[in-house]
Amino acid sequence: MKSKARVVSILMVLALLASVFGLLTVSAADGTVSLSKDFVTTPTTGGAVTVTLTDDDLNTGVTQTAEAVDSSGTAYAVSGLLPGSVASFFVQNRPLQDRASDSDTFLSREDVTVTTSTAGVLEVFALSANDGRVDIRNITTTAQTGSFTLTYVAADVQTTTVKVASTQDSTGFDLTLTETGADTGIFEATFDLAASTTSTNADDSTASTRPAIGGTAGDIVTVTYTDDDGTNRTDNVTIETTAPTVAVTSPADAASTQVITTRIEIVVTDSDAGVDADTIAVIITSTDA
Question: Do residues 136 and 84 lie in contact, with contact meaning Cβ atoms separated by under 8 Å?
């Protein structure tokens, strides 16, 4: 039979191990950057590349300060709210998130602040994170009428940057990426190839004035994202100028045959990008009986 002292010692060791593991920090997620193409053509034939950056660490809450209008565009206000009564409102951004500045790590009513022209007349009574509902209660002994604002933390569309550089322009420029939604952690932007080796950084949404990196045939364009741990995440695209050629070598044009199974021979040449035979597909669009 084990002694009580030994059991106590084992429990103490387990408790110590639990406390040590509790102090360990969870490693941050690794960001990834990818480009829409492996090869890109010259600017005159559609040289555009889309950058996609995925990093859950960037999907953080944004403080919405003194928001005065709800999700439907109506100003926050109560009208004759009786003592102890509650009125519900829906914020513009959701889901609601814990405010990092408070002492806990979970969402509570203290994470939303209601501000009125007269202090101490309204309080946050309850809230719902996913639908962004905030319940406001009259904590005075008289009916209340008036406007107010809400300050809270919620998911919101954010931006981040990557560095775009090329063999011709090693300095390059910073490209601003915009999150695809309020809570996705995925950021995108598109850049062009410049008509010369000179880069431009007109960061605009229209195709004619998008940022453009300078480069010539055979140059490598590199997109670099610096992760929060200092690691550079990169992806590359190669500039090409020679279009691929496709030639049907057999059967000859306008030839006829009685062979049921006809062998079609095609030669594909791409001096810049090369040819991946596994990706070639032959599609017959019409036949003559």
Answer: no
- C-beta separation of 237 from 35 below 8 A: yes
Number of domains the chain contains: 3
220-226 and 77-81 beta bridge pairing: unpaired
pLDDT tens-place string over residues 245-271: 788 888 887 777 777 777 888 888 776
Alpha carbon 252 to its chain centroid, in Å, reads: 52
Position 135: which residue type? D
- Strand 48-54 and strand 32-35: the pairing is antiparallel
Domain check: are 266 and 215 in the same one? Answer: no
Q: Confirm whether 167 is domain-assigned.
A: yes
**Pick from 152, 148, 151: which is nearest to 139 by CA?**
148
**Residue 15 is assigned to a structural domain of this protein:** no
pTM beyond cutoff 0.90: no
What is the C-alpha separation between 193 and 212, in angstroms, rounded? 5
